[in-house]
Amino acid sequence: MDLVVKKFGGTSVGDISKIQGVADLIVRYISQKNRRVVAVVSAMAGETNRLLHLGRSCVASPVPRELDVLLSTGEQVTTALLAMALCERGVKAKSFSGWQANISTDRNFSRAHIKAIDTKALNQALEGGFVPVVAGFQGIDDEGDITTLGRGGSDITAVALAAALKADRCYIYTDVPGVFTADPSVCSSAKLLRQISHEEMLEFSSLGAKVLHPRSVYFAMAYNIPLVVKSTFQEGSGTWIVKEGKLMEKPIVTGITYRTDEAKITVSKLPAASSAFGALFKRLANEGIFIDMITQTGFDGKLTDISFTVLDEQSSLALEITQNLVPELRAQGAFCDRNIAKISVIGIGMRYHTGVAARIFEALAKEDIAVEMISTSEIKVSVVVPRKYWEVAVHTLHSAFVGEDLTIEKESQDEIRSAV
Ligand code: ADP
Ligand code: ASP
Ligand code: MG
User: Fold this and answer.
1) What is the pLDDT of residue 403?
2) Which of 100, 145, 191, 225 has the highest count of CB atoms within 10 angstroms of its CB?
3) What pLDDT, on a 0 to 100 scale, did the predictor assign at position 300?
4) Mean pLDDT for the stretch of residues 238-248
């Protein structure tokens, strides 16, 4: 018997009529022979933010353990509502919280990692003919405390469950028809991708495309789980995340992503060979601050400027730590620029072609956009530009790289039917 995991995001279960629509979709799916499904659900759209504000309006810094108890309730509501809707349609269904589904995590509240899943309870439900409806985004640690996996974490639950249950496929249902060459809510000319490789999707997700959580892509890649992103609201075969070897085409550039939630810290005029640098990055790491890009500019033979990017929300702490180290670094000062955006150009074909960085500079220069920082890897180039230009930069780079030749044709109706 075929077993699939179907995950429904916040907008897909955003109100009662949408939850009923999801119940209908599941009923249609299992009405055909030899089909079993495990559903994973997010909290209703806006609910996790509402709970977060509730906690923060109660106290300025909620205790992490209690914040996770609070946030986990959002998903629990949806599991019960969807299970009820399925039961009303004559389908045997049962809701499962993270702990009932035995999803074990470490103890990092609000960003816990799944360690193991004991599938006994879920398998029992499946054998009994039930559709298990599992709460995404949550688990339980060794001390029996509820944990959450970080924003967007229901995607991780879905793929990890698919791996643990040895499911045939995992579907991520969302409010767009799949993964596009750029965020379709920003770039109306963005094209739907029929396929994308794991490596590219990891870059897409980490560099801003929130359509899939990066750790869910990691699980799909590590456990070889066929992963599909598709729309809850319209027909279509969506985007398949596949092994590089299975790609039908390898465009030089597959897509463009952006992030506007990072800040740049600059340490100015310090001796280039400063031994205190190691100490600075060590101290930042000890405080749990994630450093992204690092660049050195203005080297005059003796003194230099060093800039690095951090998450906006960690920038005040990062600046404080850096400023405290200014005397030790023998620098002139340290300051923070929050008005930056990071735009990334991603494509597996960059492995075999050069010249992408040059074309990025040309395209941005035409719009008078200054590039403040640049970093590259085998399959991506990221640039930092002033935040006010982020949208223009996305459009410019999208039209410079994602040309007509890379258009992915609309799938035939036959394919749609066979892939659903
Ligand atoms: P869900 O609530 O279903 O988990 P998310 O809001 O987390 O949905 O992710 C879907 C959103 O991701 C889309 O509405 C879209 O605006 C955004 N997005 C960003 N980049 C992309 C991209 N390259 N392709 C598709 N969607 C993208
Ligand atoms: N409800 C959680 C969030 O809003 C998890 C998810 O939707 O994936 O981040
Ligand atoms: Mg999401």
Assistant:
1) 64
2) 225
3) 82
4) 91
What pLDDT band is residue 420 in, cutting at 50, 70 and 90?
Answer: very low
What CATH number should be reported for the domain whose range is 2-244+413-419?
A: 3.40.1160.10
Q: Is the pLDDT of residue 208 over 80?
A: yes
Residue 239 Cβ inside 6 Å of ligand 1? The answer reads no
As beta bridge partners, residue 230 has 173
Amino acid at 223: Y
Q: Where in the chain is the domain with CATH 3.30.2130.10?
A: 250-404
Token digits for 271? 């001796």
Report the C-alpha dihedral over residues 300, 304, 305, 306, rounded to 10 degrees: 140
Ligand 2: which atom is nearest the Cα of residue 43?
1
Q: Who contacts 69 (Cβ-Cβ below 8 Å, separation ≥6)?
A: 146
Q: Nearest bound ligand to CA 148?
A: 2
Overall average pLDDT of the 97-126 stretch: 98
Architecture, CATH, for domain 250-404:
2-Layer Sandwich (3.30)
Which pTM does this prediction carry?
Answer: 0.93
3-state secondary structure of 308: strand
Nearest to 105 by CA among 137, 159, 141, 138: 141
Which pLDDT does position 245 carry in this prediction?
84
Give the chain's length.
420
Compute φ and ψ for 291, nearest 5 degrees.
-100, 135
Calculate how far, in angstroms, residue 51's C-alpha sits from the geometric centre of ligand 2.
Answer: 11
According to CATH, where is 3.40.1160.10 located in the chain?
2-244+413-419
Taking only the tens place, the pLDDT of each residue in 259-297 is 999 999 999 998 877 777 788 899 999 999 999 999 988
- Please check whether residue 265 is in contact with residue 312, taking contact to mean a CB–CB distance below 8 angstroms: no
Distances (CA, A) of 156 to 47, 213, 279, 413: 19, 7, 34, 30
Ligand 1 proximity of 210 Cβ (cutoff 6 Å): yes
Q: Beta partners for 345?
A: 256, 381
